[in-house]
Known about the structure:
- The complex is a heterodimer.
- Chain A is mainly beta.
- Chain A is 0% helix and 53% strand.
- In chain B, the strands form 2 sheets. In chain B, strands 2, 4, 5, 9, 10 and 11 form a 6-stranded mixed β-sheet that branches. A 5-stranded antiparallel β-sheet of chain B has the order 1-3-8-7-6, with no helix packed on it.
- The A-B interface holds A 2, 4, 33, 42-45, 48, 55-58, 88, 90, 97-99, 101-108 and B 32, 34, 41-45, 48, 88, 90, 92, 95, 98-106.
Amino acid sequence: DSGVTQTPKHLITATGQRVTLRCSPRSGDLSVYWYQQSLDQGLQFLIQYYNGEERAKGNILERFSAQQFPDLHSELNLSSLELGDSALYFCASSVQAGITGELFFGEGSRLTVL
Amino acid sequence: EDKVVQSPLSLVVHEGDTVTLNCSYEVTNFRSLLWYKQEKKAPTFLFMLTSSGIEKKSGRLSSILDKKELFSILNITATQTGDSAVYLCAVPLTIQGAQKLVFGQGTRLTINP
Lengths: 114, 113
């Protein structure tokens, strides 16, 4: 158990819908990272937050947004969903803003868009 | 363009064999390389390498970095069925003062009994 909690574990929805994925980082970790893993793309970095502020941005679509709350949990919002958004979404956390050691990954949220 | 490339993409061996997984990278301002193991869900950390030529070892797993030739290898000796997993290497990239961890495609290792 990495200490990172993600909910829901599984989510099935229809095209055009909107979903919210939630992540609670390890106790004491200030950084939260979101990754998307699909079969043909591997692990793709989406966005990072550090202590409530956006820190780094990757290949995140405009239909997607995220935020980190004062209690340090983070939410990833996916809207106008398309079939291609079906993937495993991981959250990871670390203590610092920069990558000086390992990231601790949650178990992921599997999103299926029908 | 910064990139991390792993090879082979897939590998099937018998229990007891030794395997070598490769990760090559082309990144600006290289600082470190990380190896992760992904079984069913969450990737779990194996090693972080920052210095060239210094082997990191944990049980039957070991890894080494060659900063001159821009690659790292992950060795697994006396493989067991429990070693079956996807092995990922990743390199932190610094873009506009912020870091992101960029992963290779992974090597899917299957150990047959």
